Amino acid sequence: MRDFPTLLALMKDRITDLAREYCSDYQYSARKDGEDFLEQSRADLERWTKQVAAGTLSPEEFEALVLARKETMEMVILRRIGLGPEQLDRYQQAVLQTVVSTTLEVNGLT
After folding, report:
1. At CB < 8 A and 24+ separation, what contacts does 34-37 make?
2. Is the confidence at residue 108, as pLDDT, over 70?
3. Each residue's pLDDT tens digit, 48-58
4. Is the dihedral angle over the CA atoms 56, 39, 101, 93 positive or is it negative?
5. Where are the domains of the chain?
6. By the 8 A CB rule, do 98 and 35 touch?
7. In angstroms, rounded to a whole number, what is the distance separating the alpha carbons of residues 8 and 11?
8. Which of 63, 73, 56 is CA-nearest to residue 1?
9. Helix (H), strand (E) counts: the chain
C-alpha cells in the first residue's frame, strides 16, 4: 500500500474530476465539499485502508463502511447554493465509490 497521504492526494485529484463531471456549474464548491468529506473521514479512512491492505478487512467490508459514511457527508456548500437533491445524491455516491475504487486499486484488490 502507498502511504496514506499519497492515497489521499490521489482521491482529491479524482474528486476534482468528479466535481467537473457532476457539478460543472459548481466545480469549486463540489470539489471543496468532497475534500472536506475526506478530511472529516480521514482517521476512519486511514484505519480502514490499513486494515484492507493487511487483509483484516475484506474489500466488501471496506466498501460497506465507506458507503455508510454517506449519512455524515455534509456537503454544506452545495446544499447552501441549492443543488438539487438528485444531483447531490449522484455526486455523493460518485465520491464514495471513488474512495472505494481508488483504495482498492492502490492496494491491488481490483
Report:
1. 34/91, 34/95, 36/74, 36/76, 37/69, 37/73, 37/74, 37/75, 37/95
2. yes
3. 999 999 999 99
4. positive
5. 4-106
6. no
7. 5
8. 56
9. 6, 0
Place of cell 478530511: 39
Residue 53, exposed/middle/buried by CB under 10 A (0-12, 13-18, 19+)? Answer: buried
Q: What pLDDT was estimated at residue 110?
A: 84
pLDDT digit string, tens, across residues 49-92: 999 999 999 999 999 999 999 988 989 999 999 999 999 999 99
Taking CA 35 as the corner, what is the angle to CA 34 and CA 38, rounded to the nearest 5 degrees?
95
- Contacting residues for 65 by C-beta, under 8 A, at least 6 apart: 44, 48, 57
Task: Look at residue 2 and tell me whether its pLDDT is greater than 80.
Answer: no
